[in-house]
Amino acid sequence: MTEDMQYTITAPERLDTTVQLPASKSIGNRALIINALSGSNIIPENLSDCDDTEVIIAALRDNPAVIDIKAAGTAMRFMTAYLSVAGGEHVITGTERMKHRPIGILVNALRYLGADISYEGEEGFPPLRIRSRQLEGGLLEVPGNISSQYVSALLMIGPVLQKGLQLRLTGDIISRPYIDLTLWVMNEYGAEAEWSDIDTITVRPKPYAERPYTIENDWSAASYWYEMMALNTDEDARVRLTGLSDSSRQGDSTVRYIFSLLGVKSTFESREEGRPAMLTLRHSGRCVPRLEYDFVSSPDLVQTFVVACALLDVPFRFTGLSTLKIKETDRIKAMKTEMRKLGYVIHDTGDCELAWDGGRCAPEADICIDTYEDHRMALAFAPAAFRIPGLKINNPQVVTKSYPHFWEDLKAVGFRVEEAL
Questions:
Q1: Bond before 127 cis per omega within 30 degrees
Q2: The predicted structure's pLDDT at residue 1
Q3: Which CA distances in Å does 101 have to 71, 72, 94, 299, 410?
Q4: What distances in angstroms separate CA 301 from CA 152, 204, 271, 294, 329, one per listed residue?
Q5: Hey, is 45 helix, strand or coil?
Q6: For residue 262, what is the enclosing H or E element?
Q7: Which residues fall within 8 angstroms of residue 63, CB to CB, at 6 or more apart?
Q8: pLDDT of res. 93
Q9: Stated pTM of the model
Q10: In Å, what is the CA distance from 337 to each residue of 108, 299, 319, 348, 381?
Q11: Are the C-beta atoms of 113 and 140 separated by less than 8 Å?
Q12: 60, 101, 143, 177: which one has the fewest Cβ atoms less than 10 Å from its Cβ?
């Protein structure tokens, strides 16, 4: 699929389907790094076939001297820490956008622990040259308001450091569920890692153990089916989602609660502890008149709820968005721009808030959404076709980053997805 591809999307009148969700890349990417650090040859099962995961699989399998992680920010952060301790010398690089995404905080933290990392280009940004060595570990302080992926990258190498790692997070701590998810997967592999104080995580120098491991399906991917349920008007609509756990450690599992406020009821077919099950979505008929929510722990859901709330005519104020400007694109700016095409005037305050007070403008006659090389722009706007027939999306192939078979899944449930160059 070429970069100038465009899809025109028309939603079905009825929605009654079972969806095989992709595996969680958040869990899978962590399990791959931890599994490699354990020295295991047992590959985790039910790995996602998304771009982010595939570049990690390829790097670990092939161990090339130059590792191109393309647009995968998670892979850049996790692999940078991993390569610092895994043996050998490597250069890690990515797309032009990746070369402008900051990584200096992580590099400085790793250097403090003794890592040998140098910049091949601009200071503070990829590409990086990493010469592995045994790191001593010990006490390390980093700001709590940095990306949780920096924190997770440091934590995952903790068990192989000579003195383990005592990581103190200063100031406000954001995206805590993602940190907790990392600790959970680490402990699943035999690590001893826990919050030892309100702002401190202690990782003991106890090596990981080999074990078989199966990845849960992705709650982030589920969020787009919740959005479709909220936006369609078929009172008898049903969506059944596979492989999700009622007790999931994924931060985006909070989507269940937030969409319950927008008229979507969730029911698990079984609740056996630790076992993924089928989840059924239905209309509840109840929707709040206004939504205020702090997304500091689940920033990847923001685009979904901006689109859903506006099209449901629910004014909103979303806070905790400080990481959105350094994602695949500046998501705050992108959402304001694209929502204006739909006729909605979204306001931002600083770098951490988006709000809509009901303000409208004239929508464009032929609405075409730009995706900014950001998978979540395409994924979040596609369900809008239930309210905007014939919605167009540019460069729809970006979904391969996290949900490669998204468009096939839409076609299977009755969406008309027409290609044009």
A1: yes
A2: 43
A3: 10, 11, 10, 17, 32
A4: 20, 33, 25, 11, 15
A5: strand
A6: none
A7: 88
A8: 98
A9: 0.86
A10: 35, 19, 19, 12, 13
A11: yes
A12: 143
Tokens of 47: 């790995």
Measured CA to CA, the distance from residue 409 to residue 242 in angstroms comes to: 13
pLDDT tens for residues 302-329? 999 999 999 999 999 999 887 676 666 7
3-state secondary structure of 333: helix
Catalytic positions: 300
**DSSP per position, 354-408:** EEE-S-B-PPPSS-EE--TT-HHHHHHHGGGGGTSTTEEEESGGGGGGT-TTHHH
Q: How far apart are CA 222 and CA 218, in angstroms?
A: 6
Most confident of 142-151, 262-271, 389-398: 389-398
The string of pLDDT tens digits covering residues 83-131 is: 999 999 999 999 998 999 999 999 999 999 999 999 999 999 999 999 9
Q: What are 52's two structure tokens?
A: 């982010």
| Interior/surface letters 345-372, b for 16+ CB within 10 angstroms, e for the rest | ebebeeebbbbbeeeeeeeeeebebbbb
Which residue is it, tokens 């929502």?
339
Does residue 57 have a pLDDT over 90? yes
